[in-house]
Amino acid sequence: MKLLVINGPNLNMLGIREPDIYGKQDFAALQDFIRDSAKALGHSVTLFQSNHEGEIVDIIQSAYGVYDGIVINPAAYTHTSVAILDALKAVGLPTVEVHLSDINEREEFRKFSYVSMVAKKTICGLGFEGYRKALEWFK
Ligand code: DQA
């Protein structure tokens, strides 16, 4: 399948950012992991990262008619963005939500996810492996 993998704000800081929560591996390592996992599963993937909500809305809109599905870690926008939720609803593509950390076991404000309202599945707390599981879901 042809899948779009979206990573939201601050995920480009992996390795530097709170390594006790997000791990010591950097964002380049995550991208390699996603590409390798997709290849092993027979998917073609496009990787996109942005720190800007509007750019994430734009890439979701541009996925319409182009991709078979979306894997998204909206990062902090998970908990705030009606715009990303609406964009995902607008394109109607099957979406799997991923979080490196377990958002249910952290601060109270992280327990709520707008994207979960549209996601077919939410995977959290598995680190990089969560992305592989998300890609596997599309098989
Ligand atoms: C995150 C969890 C979010 O609460 C946080 O804002 C992030 C990363 C995760 O992958 O665990 O930036 O989505």
Largest sheet: 5 strands, parallel
Helix share bin: 25-40%
SSE run: EHHEHEHEEH
CATH superfamily descriptor: Dehydroquinase, class II
The strand line-up of the biggest sheet is 2-1-3-4-5
The percentage of residues in β strands lies in: 15-25%
- Tell me the structural class: alpha/beta
**pLDDT < 50 stretches:** none
State the end-to-end distance: 8 Å
Number of domains: 1
Mean pLDDT: 98
Shape: globular
CATH architecture: 3-Layer(aba) Sandwich
| E-strand count | 5
Under CATH, the topology is which? Rossmann fold
Q: Give the bound compounds.
A: 1,3,4-trihydroxy-5-OXO-cyclohexanecarboxylic acid
Task: Give structural attributes.
five-stranded parallel β-sheet; globular; 139 residues; 5 helices; binds 1,3,4-trihydroxy-5-OXO-cyclohexanecarboxylic acid; alpha/beta; Rossmann fold; single chain
